[in-house]
């Protein structure tokens, strides 16, 4: 969402620069609100559903991580519980044996030796032996009590973790049910939008309108981004041509579904970026360090992240499933900033990827490393 985290700014940014940036962002918010008001009812429903789905998926992932962590902690506690139970039982057994042995010896033998004044050496040995037995018994009793105390503490922690796990599991069920409702809402909105498109001409008008909307957004974002100097980087963006990583992991290679400059509708529309094949939920990574200047939904592009890399360079990542970094955040090269999806009304999962210099699109293929 729009909103600048003042605490995230670097130390060298002055209060005047931050105030100016905030004014630009407020202006940008007003523009986006006006633009959103021009959307049709079905587009509004689609935007709301895709935003909610992105938030829910992030919450579900967080709860799944908590669930996995709690299960691991419970496994460790239950293993500790088993060990302590065995230790306590062994200590109890040894203690019972010692008590029985002491009882079997009885106090008569002790008194007999104590009263025998003709065997002082034997008396000293017996006294030391009985002292040893008493101290050993006291030690065993203390060890037994300590194990019992720790066991009770572990059992209490198991109850607490189990209750927390149950609460997290219930939250997951609730969020999954809500997610299903939002996904159904999205499908209905998409079906209604497709029904409204009577012919290719109206679809072209929509795509042209979306492109104009993006251009206006980028102009406003670029103006706002100029108020904050980028963090210093060892390798400026302009020197990274042919060396940038792909925004998607390339273990299996990256498939370009739509190339830069490719023509549509008899040359009336040209692609200003790349459309890359992706798996639903696949990590989307920043190709270079920079500042998040936009993290929100935009018609035609869905949930989108825009990074400002300084000196006029920006990179765009569209059609995401979830957004993982907020506006104002600094990110490093390779950092996961989103997960791939099909928001913005797309039927297939793909990542829209652009690189711009001073507002003009440039072919991303010339910037990324060869596959």
UniProtKB/TrEMBL annotation:
Any GO molecular function: metalloendopeptidase activity
Domain of life: Bacteria
Domain M23ase beta-sheet core: 272-364
Stored InterPro entries: Cell_wall_metabolism_enzyme, Dup_hybrid_motif, M23ase_b-sheet_dom
Coiled coil: 18-87, 165-224
UniProt keyword list: Coiled coil, Hydrolase
Protein name as annotated: Septal ring factor EnvC, activator of murein hydrolases AmiA and AmiB
Organism: Allopseudospirillum japonicum
